[in-house]
Amino acid sequence: MNKVEIKARLEESYDHFLKYLGKLSEDEFEYAPDGKWNAGQQAEHLIKSTRPLIQALGFPKFMISFKFGKSNRPSRTYDELVAKYKQKLTTMEGDPPGSYVPKKVKYSEYSKLSKTQTEIIEKIENKLSKWSEDDLDQYIFPHPLLGKVTVREMLYFTIYHAEHHQNVVKIYLKGI
Fold it and tell me: In this structure, are residues 140 and 61 in contact, taking their beta carbons and an 8 Å threshold?
């Protein structure tokens, strides 16, 4: 995917997720199996995991290179990245790092969550405009589960992450 396609997929993925949550009843929105996150918490988790990308994409590239290095391999395709993420999920134990764990979220917070997430995606897209196609494959960011990934791969993950959490909500709601 090139930058234009990445931007379109980011918008589409988060728009679908937020519209799906917006159609849930209060009971559905706040339901979760024991020890799992409700739909609102899934949304809060996505906010917590996308917000750092705004700052990361705004760092000077020499700082990114100094702090994390540069890629020594080509970027994976979207499908390859998704497959690696799914494989890592099978061996993951417990919750993600604390900074990504959501607080309790009520149905009444949906509008605020939706507005915040939409603004974050818009800011990511604006920052992405300042990156070249080559830069997306050259620079790397750390991911808590995947390790070092290229910036392009991080964006692929970000696209898939909303789809993943929408599917999780759907699976949980089948249990009602």
Answer: no
Question: How far is it, in rounded angstroms, from Cα 80 to Cα 84?
Answer: 6
- Closest to 57 in 3D by CA, of 109, 126, 7, 112: 126
In sequence order, which ranges of the chain are alpha helices (DSSP H)? 3-22, 26-30, 39-58, 61-68, 78-91, 110-128, 133-138, 151-174
Instruction: Report the domain count for the chain.
Output: 1
Contact between residue 11 and residue 19 where contact means Cβ atoms under 8 Å apart: no
- 63-68: list long-range contacts, CB under 8 Å, 24+ apart: 64/139, 64/140, 64/141, 65/139, 68/139, 68/140, 68/141, 68/142, 68/148
Instruction: Give the pLDDT of residue 93.
Output: 73
Name the one residue in this structure whose structure tokens are 């930058």. Answer: 3
CATH number at residue 79: 1.20.120.450
pLDDT band at residue 139 under the 50/70/90 scheme: very high
pLDDT, residue 71, reads 96
Q: Which residues form the domain of 47?
A: 3-174
Task: For residues 31-36, give the mean pLDDT.
Answer: 92
Quote the pLDDT of residue 176.
67
pTM reported for the whole predicted model: 0.94
